[in-house]
Write a structure and sequence with these properties.
CATH superfamily of the largest domain: Helix Hairpins
Number of domains: 5
CATH architecture of the largest domain: Orthogonal Bundle
Helix content: 25-40%
Radius of gyration: 55 Å
Oligomer: single chain
Number of helices: 8
Strand content: 25-35%
CATH class of the largest domain: Mainly Alpha
Distance between the termini: 69 Å
Largest sheet: 6 strands, antiparallel, barrel
CATH topology of the largest domain: Helix Hairpins
Length: 500
């Protein structure tokens, strides 16, 4: 009996539950039907409208900026090497990396003892060579006097022979006396030849002594130069780097001890592609007198300097391509050799071009043009230059037309869009709202639709009803109400309506 009672109670509860569920479903269907009847429309599928940022293409004259990376180098540098070997006796105060030196300043001094000894020996040899020259000159004078005496003796013997011949013709002198005079003349002639030969030897000795003196003078000058080389001076004002010297160190000849660079004479070495290089040439094939801007980024802070293109490399290095340019820094303050900098060169101006964001170009090299019916149309463009996040395009065929500023994968030709107009620099263009005049019936229907939207804040609903009561109403507000913003359905629409 108890089992039967419990079964009947369970069956009764199940019947009541099913009835309650059925009543709830009937109430939901009735509410939906009443809502559709009240709004006077049926739910229907609508085309999706995309909101896009638009920019107008305006042809203009633009000078492209060529950007490249380069390295700062010095135009004037000096390697400080040891002219002679020896011990370093003295180093200038503050002779260290980064120190400033002035022209003519003593930098370091090497032990001059060996050089001084060599100079003393060379001077001693020079004195001996001078004495040898003087002795040779005196010997030459004596040799000349011997020649004169021999010639006078020869003249005397010659006159004696003539006199003997005259006496022999008169029969006064004998044949033996005549022969004796002839032999005496021959001996005098031979003595003259011997004296002249001695004179020639004396002249040769003088020449050799003079040559030896000149050679010894060269040795003295070289020894003096070596002595002077023990003291090294700065040939121009600059900054020290790569310093590798201390007092007491033994250095070898030609060993590099430091370098001096001129921080006021700097240039930038930059490598460009061949196409970029050709754009910097004039009609004659020479480099234009192009201005430049050199930028050094230091922890977010930029150091800039104007510059000027100086020259281009004469050859292409092995394994490299393009061309290497050298640009002078007109204001090198803050720059140092070895800095990695950005170089900006001004190219010749381009006509009938426009600067648009690079995001406006599709992968196919097209732009999405916004037509009069707010639908997109893909149009190919010719990209001339890339300028950072922007590009320069030919604008003759797109003059005065609007293009999508940022192309996304879900946009394409034929899509309907709602443009948000912006200038070329990204600032929004003020939009003049389109106003619509409503008839009495449509105005009342819209007001009723807003009044029934219980999910909307009371203040927002009152403001919208006040706007709908005016003679002209924004078309955007009407569109949003008719698209479901004014019904009392979902909370999800209440937010957008409140913002309208």
């Amino acid at each position: 009996m108890r089992f039967l009672t419990r079964s009947l109670v369970a069956l009764l509860l199940a019947s009541v539950s099913v009835g309650a569920l059925g009543y709830a479903g009937f109430s939901l269907v009735s509410a939906i039907q009443d809502r559709n009847a009240a709004t006077g429309r049926q739910a229907a599928g609508r085309e999706r409208v995309f909101t896009v940022r638009a920019v107008m293409v305006i042809p203009a004259e633009i000078s492209p900026t060529l950007s490249a990376f380069g390295e700062v180098r010095t135009q004037r540098a000096l390697e400080l090497r040891a002219p002679v070997g020896g011990r370093v006796l003295e180093v200038a105060q503050g002779f260290e990396d980064g120190a400033e030196v002035t022209e003519g300043q003593l930098l370091f001094r090497i032990d001059p003892a060996d050089a001084a000894s060599a100079l003393a020996l060379a001077q001693s040899d020079l004195s001996r060579a001078g004495a040898e020259l003087r002795d040779a000159e005196r010997a030459l004078v004596l040799a000349a006097e011997d020649v004169n005496a021999a010639e006078a003796q020869f003249d005397l013997r010659d006159r004696a022979l003539v006199r003997r011949q005259g006496l022999a013709e008169r029969g006064v002198s004998t044949e033996a006396a005549l022969e004796e005079a002839e032999l005496a003349l021959s001996s005098a002639r031979q003595a003259v030849v011997g004296r002249r030969q001695a004179q020639a030897q004396a002249e040769a000795r003088v020449d050799q002594a003079r040559t030896a003196l000149e050679r010894q003078q060269i040795s003295v000058d070289e020894a003096q130069r070596r002595l002077d080389d023990t003291r090294v001076y700065a040939s121009f004002s600059g900054t020290l780097t790569d310093v590798n010297i201390v007092e007491g160190r033994i250095v070898n000849t030609s060993e590099q001890l430091a370098r001096i660079i001129d921080p006021t004479s700097l240039e930038v070495s930059v490598r460009l592609s061949t196409a970029q290089y050709l754009r910097l040439l004039d009609d004659a094939g020479a480099l234009r007198d192009t201005g430049a801007e050199i930028v050094l980024d230091v922890a977010g802070f930029e150091i800039t300097s104007p510059g000027r293109v100086l020259r281009a490399s004469a050859t292409v290095e092995q394994g490299q391509s393009g061309r290497r340019l050298f640009v002078e820094l007109n204001a090198p303050r803050g720059f140092r050799p070895g800095d990695f900098v950005t170089l900006r060169l001004q190219e010749p101006a381009l006509q009938d071009v426009a600067l648009v964001p690079a995001s406006a170009i599709t992968a196919r090299g097209e732009v999405l043009v916004i037509q009069d019916d707010n639908r997109l149309a893909a149009t190919p463009v010719n990209v001339l230059r890339r300028q950072g996040d922007d590009v320069i395009i030919e604008a003759a065929e797109l003059a005065g037309r609007e293009v999508v500023r940022e192309v996304t994968p879900n946009l394409g030709s034929g899509f309907q869009v709602r443009p948000l107009r912006e200038n070329a620099d990204g600032t929004p263009v003020p939009d003049i709202a389109e106003m619509v005049t409503l008839d009495a019936g449509r105005r009342a229907q819209l007001i009723a639709q807003v009044a029934e939207n219980t999910g909307m804040p009371e203040q927002v609903r009152a403001r919208m009803i006040a706007q709908l009561s005016e003679d002209q109403v924004p078309a955007q507000m009407i569109e949003r109400i008719e698209n479901g913003g004014g019904t009392g359905g979902g909370r999800g629409r209440g937010g957008p309506m409140g913002g309208g």
